[in-house]
Design a protein that fits this description.
mainly alpha; two-stranded antiparallel sheet; 2 domains
Length: 128
């Protein structure tokens, strides 16, 4: 048995639990299967992503973070925050110029753009 076997088995069970909970709450098989597969893909991606150190002595929770990963996450979070703050500023200036209230869709779009900036910055910094 490899050093990550227990991790994979436990994460398959967690992904199935996500699917079962989704099925109970929504009643949709397609949504439940989608959530299960999505969770499983994330769990399979994490050991190979380079985001964490893998410590084999902890069989179910083998991931640890190092200073390099923390620095990358901090820089990516800063980038996302700066884009979000500038977006709020632009939205406020636009709403003052047009004398209208900012829409909820504008705020939603800003949060999505900030989140995508964080993810893009994180992936860009880890590309090496």
């Amino acid at each position: 048995m490899s050093h990550l076997s227990k991790y994979y088995i436990s994460r398959i069970l967690i992904a199935l639990a996500f699917g079962a909970l989704t099925l109970i709450l929504s009643g949709s098989w397609t949504l439940a299967i989608g959530f299960s597969i999505g969770a499983l893909v994330v769990f399979l991606y994490l050991p190979k992503s380079g985001r964490y150190l893998i410590r084999s002595e902890n069989s179910i929770t083998p991931f640890r973070s190092d200073e390099y990963s923390q620095a990358i996450r901090n820089q990516a979070a800063r980038d996302g925050f700066v884009v979000l703050t500038l977006g709020f500023f632009v939205l406020q200036i636009y709403s003052m110029a047009t004398k209208t209230a900012p829409s909820a869709n504008g705020f939603t779009a800003l949060f999505v753009i900030g989140w995508l900036t964080y993810l893009g910055s994180d992936f860009w910094r880890r590309r090496a």
